[in-house]
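Mods, move this if it's the wrong board.
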Amino acid sequence: MVKPIVSIAMVTYNHAPYIVEAIEGVLRQKTGFPIELVIGDDYSTDRTREIILDYQKKNPEIIRIIPSDKNVGAKKNFFRTTKSCRGKYIAFCEGDDYWHPADKLHKQVEYLESHPKCGLLFTDCDVYYDGSGKVDKNYNRSKGFVSPVNLTIEQIMGDGLIKWTCTAIIRRSLFETIVESDPILHQSGKFLMGDTQIWTEAALVSDVFYIPETSATYRRLGESASRSDNPVKRWQFWKSAAEMKLYLCDKHKLPEKIRQKQEAAWCDFSLWLAFYTQNAALAEEVRKKKEAFSWKEWLRYFGAKNIMVWHAYLAVSRFCGLFRKKNDQAL
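Not the wrong board. Structure tokens:
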């Protein structure tokens, strides 16, 4: 079998309604070099496995499947899939996202081959909202985010410009060096976020190039770790993300302004989590770290300590939310 230049890591779990579009987006790529599609199926219980096996039979020279006899979770599935990649470069596309331009890989590899100092490349992305069918074209540009050519550490760790994993391509040697150098940061369950730390550490040792044009569609489903309807899950995720970024600040002695921003984020996310979980100790930890509270933060602080305040805060919040909704409908 010819060794591929690019391996596409596609992780999937119960993506039967979407996986065909994801696979077709890879197969339509027009390149002058060999590619492989490595699909890591995390013990799907719908028709996902049947669909990918059918595609593998039709495209055995391109598609390899990494099956599982039990559900291992998103992070472990991601790393066992990337570990099976053999190409000089690894590109990413989850089973519910998809690429649309047929020259995506060609353009990206052409740039990386001619710029050896560049280790990682992103592009802009379209966002499809599965519930409404709405599409935000060129999401970063449409939201007014700055589109630099080479991304800085601040931009990778920040909340403005979104680094879409489904558009990314990275040198495999760089990816493997980063992931193996710190298993706690990258492969353990210590942090819930799994990609930002890779991109950050890549930016510390190589150039990171950004192309301000869309190359993929990210499908925003109803429920995810970062946008869960369950506030406890949602704030646990963002608190963990801030802790991961603080870990990076300490590990690499990043500028103080980055640390201060992440400390502020940790305080905000932790106070919300303390409120929703009635965790008085966590609320007190935030109070000791933060010099001053706004009146809303004081309410969340006391709500974490007192169930009556907690109920009152939620009641007022719901009332104000309904009032705003009625006003919006009247306009």
